TrEMBL record:
Pfam families: EamA
Protein name as it appears in the record: DMT family permease
Entry annotated with the keyword Cell membrane: yes
UniProt topology in membrane: Multi-pass membrane protein
One GO CC term, this protein: plasma membrane
UniProt keyword list: Cell membrane, Membrane, Transmembrane, Transmembrane helix
Length: 319
């Protein structure tokens, strides 16, 4: 066998690995970009006359059939696996926990986030939400007894120092706006989502991530519907400007469903660490889009605060 033939075979054997890696990087980049669009389309929806509750109802109402279909398919597969046994496809206590966790992760967190965006810029909202891994680390120490070392403490400090720096700059841009209240609402949204992340993992390990996510989204839609009916007339859902439905559709699928699958696939192909590093540019993308599309003011302090917070979150994500 010649050296040339050996080299050709060697390339043939190793070429799928670089291809898989590059595909994973591409998925992570595109998924991060689509996630970054969320705050932009929420702001555009507000400008078109929607409020937080109405927009959340439209967004969840459009995504609801998708998750019902996904869960129905998964349930049918599970029934096939347990056919002939007395074991239920999904234990009822696990189903109830999944539905209730949907309250924290996809109803309460989303509502607080949208409400906060009515008071702060897309840039500040995205950065405040981005610090949730630091919050998860603190909650794991409080509730699960996990150790918090000096690196984690530094990471938490940097994360919120970055938010504070951007908050101070935005406060100077819009002194009459209720910026503090907006940041507090988004902070509560990050807290709600952090609790969801903390307590969802054991449930996902029992029934699977896709099954859990579908149940959580179905449960959250139920809570959204109750909230909407308590605060709005049913006619409000149909009397909004048509463009809001377009924005709601984009938020439901382009900014939520599609990138979530992309990011999960990227994690499988290139690992969680690389995916997290790529995802760190998400707030920067949101900042650039907010400046270009929404015309939001920005300054070097915005970028400095963003950089400091990204370093902090990266320290939390690093093993």
């Amino acid at each position: 066998m010649t050296t040339e033939t050996t080299a050709v075979k060697s390339v043939a054997k190793t070429s799928p690995i670089p291809l898989q890696f590059s595909w994973g990087v591409t998925l992570a980049i595109v998924g991060t970009f689509l996630f970054a669009l969320k705050s932009i389309f929420i702001k555009l929806s507000f400008a078109a006359g929607a409020d937080a509750t109405l927009l959340l109802a439209i967004r969840m109402g459009m995504a609801f059939p998708f998750y019902v279909i996904v869960f129905a398919v998964l349930l049918r597969r599970r029934w096939a696996l347990v056919a002939g046994s007395d074991a239920p496809a999904f234990p009822m206590p696990i189903v109830i926990r999944s539905l209730l966790l949907g309250f924290l992760g996809y109803y309460l967190a989303s509502y607080l986030d949208l409400s906060g965006l009515e008071y702060v810029s897309a840039q500040l909202e995205r950065l405040t939400l981005f610090t949730y891994p630091a919050m998860v680390a603190a909650l794991a120490w409080m509730f699960l007894g996990e150790q918090v070392n000096a690196r984690i403490l530094i990471a938490i400090g940097l994360s919120y120092a970055g938010v504070y720096l951007m908050y101070g700059q935005e406060k100077s841009f819009t002194p009459d706006a209720n910026t503090g209240w907006g940041v507090f609402l988004v902070f509560l949204a990050a807290l709600s989502y952090s609790l969801y992340v903390l307590f969802a993992k054991p449930v996902m390990q029992k029934i699977g991530s896709r099954e859990f996510t579908s149940l959580a989204m179905i449960g959250s839609t139920f809570f959204v519907a109750i909230h909407f009916l308590m605060t709005h007339s049913i006619d409000d859902f149909f009397e909004v400007q048509p463009i809001v439905y377009v924005y709601g559709l984009v938020l439901a699928f382009v900014c939520t469903v599609i990138p979530s699958f992309m990011i999960n696939e990227a994690i499988l192909k290139i690992g969680a660490t690389r995916t997290t590093v790529i995802g760190s540019v998400g707030p920067v993308l949101t900042m650039l889009l907010a400046v270009m599309i929404l015309g939001e003011p920005s300054s070097w302090k915005h970028f400095a605060g963003m950089a400091i917070a990204i370093v902090g979150v990266s320290l939390v994500a690093k093993k």
